[in-house]
Amino acid sequence: MRLLALSTALAALLGLPAFAESARLTPPASLDEPLASAPAKETIVLAGGCFWGVQGVFQHVKGVTDAVSGYDGGAKTTAQYETVSTGTTGHAESVRVTYDPSQITLGQLLRIYFSVVHNPTEINRQGPDTGTQYRSAIFPQTAEQARIAKAYIAEINQAHVYGAPLATRIEPGHTFYPAEGYHQNYLTLHPDQPYIAYNDMPKIADLKATLPALYRQQPVLVAKAELSN
Fold it and tell me: What gap in Å lies between CA 120 and CA 132, rounded to an integer?
């Protein structure tokens, strides 16, 4: 409650709405992968604005075993924060989500992505951040993931959940590069930071309120061994 009060007070001070964005619950994906019969590991890379909030949301999702902030869509040589921030590298700030398909499906992860994580109708921006590095993009790891994502985008558009068509791009064939260590677990480590309190903490509350069966109270954090970049 303290964090929500902080974000509301900050918004009032700046003359902004109480929350940067509000969740819009999309329908369940009609085309989805079935739940696996045994624990395993799959990954999907998702971009939806500043990776602090994207990572923070997925770290609170049941069945997610790891969520790492990073860069996707460009070359290894330009996968550094200062360079990516120029908007000229092809990279998007992204999160590599590793999940157990016996607990959660790709369709459920995409439902969170489109409902809670960001506004998928915005082109090359999210909230106060602008540039191609903040675009809405899915980086599928398999052809089946691309097929499910494409079908779900069409389904959401047909349902007119948003007042405009989704701008989300499906971009296969790229490599994910983890971001610097100081970007990992940023939401958990800095919940009172004004940007986080205003733009991202409400998304955690939205996840809990709109999709409670998929919410986990304790976030799964990037291990210390991965924070040495």
Answer: 14
